[in-house]
Specification:
Helix content: 40-55%
CATH class: Alpha Beta
Shape: globular
Order of helices and strands: EEHEHEHEHHHHHEHEHHHE
CATH superfamily: Alpha/Beta hydrolase fold, catalytic domain
CATH topology: Rossmann fold
Distance between the termini: 19 Å
Strand content: 5-15%
Number of helices: 12
Strand order of the largest sheet: 7-6-5-4-2-3-1-8
Structural class: alpha/beta
Radius of gyration: 17 Å
CATH architecture: 3-Layer(aba) Sandwich
């Protein structure tokens, strides 16, 4: 079962938010609040993470994209504007290839179309041998710049707490899906309008990886966020959200009467009633 938070004006264009590996929908907190003023927002937990189920792995990106499609069907959504960060972006690309008619536009954030298998072999081995605890601090160092970790200990503690709640089996099974990813040859087949966003100091999916996406996806553009590492949406939320809203404004402008609607959370598919 897929857990999600659904909020925003009913009937407005739908924006689906897909989080990074080792996180859950809560990492989108700043963007949910901004989006819910104008859009129907669906922030969901990928299988193996947060409140969603942990079916037996390994998983594939096709499996993870299939879960997103099933959730869309359950919510009666013919199409969405899909926003994915890291693993979420990988799911978004797969979804846009698997069901192009269901993806109205695509925001790919701090993500890549291919990653070195060796780093995932190491992380999978660590998780199998000792659990996820030893992976927490190295992950924080990739997700945020040293300056942000020093200046924002409360945010670091909060996101570390989210990561620490990830099921070990879910971490491993999703890591295996990322390890097997080979999307570079298929980028030219993506037809959804696309924007790529990346932090200048992202060591996990660096600017070079974002450039591969922007150059390979027809018509895609690239926005580079200064002073951000991997979770650019949390480290530089104002700049990130501006780039996101600008893109959505061009591709998902709600009707005037919908812009004035009042946002209200609605439970759906094991949904949380509020941001945790």
């Amino acid at each position: 079962m897929t857990a999600c938070l659904e909020t925003g004006p009913e009937g407005a264009p739908a924006v689906m938010l897909s989080h990074s590996h080792f996180s859950d929908h809560r990492m989108w907190r700043p963007q949910i609040e901004a989006l819910a003023e104008r859009y129907r927002v669906i922030a969901y937990d990928t299988r193996g993470h947060g409140g969603s189920g942990v079916p037996k792995g390994p998983y594939s990106l096709d499996d993870l994209a299939g879960d997103a499609l099933e959730l869309m069907d359950a919510l009666g959504l013919d199409e969405v504007h899909f926003v994915g960060l890291s693993m979420g972006g990988m799911i978004g690309m797969t979804l846009a290839l698997q069901a192009p008619e269901r993806v109205r536009s695509l925001l790919l954030c701090d993500t890549a179309a291919e990653m070195p298998a060796g780093i995932w072999d190491e992380r999978i081995a660590t998780a199998r041998e000792t659990g996820i605890a030893p992976l927490l601090e190295p992950t924080m160092s990739r997700w945020f710049t040293p300056e942000f970790r020093a200046s924002s200990p409360e945010t670091i503690a909060w996101i570390r707490g989210i990561a620490s709640g990830t099921a070990t089996d879910g971490y491993i099974a999703c890591a295996e899906a990322i390890k097997a990813m080979r999307l570079v040859p298929r980028l030219g087949d993506i037809r959804a309008p696309t924007r790529v966003i990346v932090g200048t100091q992202d060591p996990a999916t660096p600017v070079a990886a974002a450039e591969v996406l922007a150059q390979g996806i027809p018509g895609a553009d690239l926005v580079v966020i200064e002073g951000a590492a991997h979770l650019a949406n949390l480290e530089q939320p104002a700049a990130f959200t501006e780039a996101m809203l600008e893109f959505l404004g061009a591709h998902a402008a709600p009707d005037a009467h919908r812009q004035g609607a009042t946002a209200s959370p609605r439970p759906a598919s094991q949904a949380d009633s509020e941001l945790r």
